[in-house]
């Protein structure tokens, strides 16, 4: 089962710009049922970034929402970290949020959900290890509510510039080289660095399209991979190395596609 999160006060853009707004509902798109969320507890001061995740613990049938809020420090520390953070967790069915932790990582992006695999949410984190800029995958264990580092793929070259997702039940990492190609990697055995595998590579010159940031969604029965590219849905055929646009009547210009398993049962 999958629920969608809706933010306020900008309902016309429910999947963007969480800074200064709050999540208001969790919605089951199949049944139409929804759950009101209490406002999270935030510190005084204006947030500079808000990262949110939504995940499921199947063994206990528990859904959790995680919010990480970053604020500007009044006094910069010796390690040049000018941000402070607060981490709040809400379990569907509880009366209020729990806010007991901070994040030791600077999580990238303002996406409305980190990739949920193996009962953990995942984001890319960027930070400095001394003078060196380091990218890493950070996971948040939904059961124990703690952060940890997940091994990343060893790309051929360049900075580890990628986005995370879920593909065929595995954690995926999509890396692009501007105007050149897109690589999609999957972690076939969770937590094992050696089992990161390059699933496919889409070369811009072969498909006749300059591809920007894409999000792989799922493989269709005919073997084509469906992707979201901005406000467009694309289908890539790995055998013929061709790319075609999937047109759906009535689709809005701005949207975020989410792969989910439909269910009429709500928590």
Automatic annotation (TrEMBL):
Residues 25-254 form the F-box associated beta-propeller type domain. NCBIfam families: F_box_assoc_1. This is F-box associated beta-propeller type 3 domain-containing protein. It comes from Solanum verrucosum.
